[in-house]
Amino acid sequence: MNKAFVKESDQDDDDAPPGAPSLPPGTRNYMTRRGFEILKAELDQLVRDERPRLVETIRWAASNGDRSENGDYIYGKKRLREIDRRIRFLGKRLDLAEVVDPARQDNTGQVFFGATVTVSDAEGEETTYQIVGVDETDFARNRISWVSPLARALLKAREGDLVRFQSPAGWREIEVVEIDYRAIED
Predict the structure, then answer these.
(1) Alpha-helix residue ranges (DSSP H) falling in the chain
(2) Residue 122: which H helix or E strand, with range?
(3) How many CB atoms lie under 10 A from the CB of residue 157?
(4) Percent of the chain with pLDDT over 90
(5) For the CA atoms of 168, 171, 175, 176, what is the dihedral angle to 10 degrees?
(6) CB 35 within 8 A of CB 145
(7) Residue 144 pLDDT greater than 70, yes or no
(8) 14 or 51: whose pLDDT is higher?
(9) Cα–Cα distance between 95 and 22 in angstroms, integer?
(10) Core-most of 47, 99, 104, 116, by most CB within 10 Å?
(11) Up-side HSE of residue 125: CA atoms within 13 Å toward CB?
């Protein structure tokens, strides 16, 4: 189908890499300052360093003659398309970005974006999560996206509240033990 006949909202994820987290339609891309800086640094590196170097390689490969069997040229063009797609994706994410500083949260008694939340499950095991942007999710460091089922269930909860949410293992109930707003540590 010709892209001229496709709604703008349908094209938003065309440049998204496979498995990239998507934003709920019509929402801003909430992220911490750290997350914004990481995406910005990647975009700058691609635009300033990697893409120009690859364009020069493609130019050299094209000057060698027959392009149909020129591996450097074919691979270079393919890689250039990947880089351009990533640049468009990062540009869109940064355009929608709304940087939120957790330390500036006024209502520290409730869970909002950027909160570091300690929860206790039915067995009494405590786990601490930090609610971050979709591009900052890191399960190894217990950084969960604000659009995840757990984060959505925790939003607006207070210390001592019992929260139910749908997990891959089924419905779970956890208690909010502590809410803190601090900067993300690496």
Answers:
(1) 8-11, 33-45, 51-62, 71-95, 149-154
(2) none
(3) 20
(4) 65
(5) 50
(6) no
(7) yes
(8) 51
(9) 15
(10) 116
(11) 3
Residue 104 vs residue 55, higher pLDDT: 55
Pull the structure tokens for residue 42: 């990647």
Q: For residue 74, give the 3-state DSSP assignment.
A: helix
Q: Decide: helix, strand or coil at residue 101.
A: coil
Q: Which two tokens stand for residue 96?
A: 């929608």
State pTM to two decimals.
0.79
Query: What type of residue is 177?
Result: V
Q: How many CB atoms lie within 10 A of CB 107?
A: 11
Mean pLDDT of the chain: 87
Please say whether the dihedral angle defined by the alpha carbons of residues 42, 44, 50 and 55, taken in this order, is positive or negative. Answer: positive
Kindly tell me if the per-residue pLDDT of 10 is higher than 60.
Answer: no
Q: Is residue 16 predicted with pLDDT exceeding 70?
A: yes
φ/ψ of 113, rounded to 5, equals -55, 135
Of residues 37, 29, 43, 44, the one with CA closest to residue 186: 37
What mean pLDDT do residues 88-116 have? 91
- Residue 29 Ramachandran class (φ > 0 left, ψ -120 to 50 alpha, else beta): beta
pLDDT at 4: 56
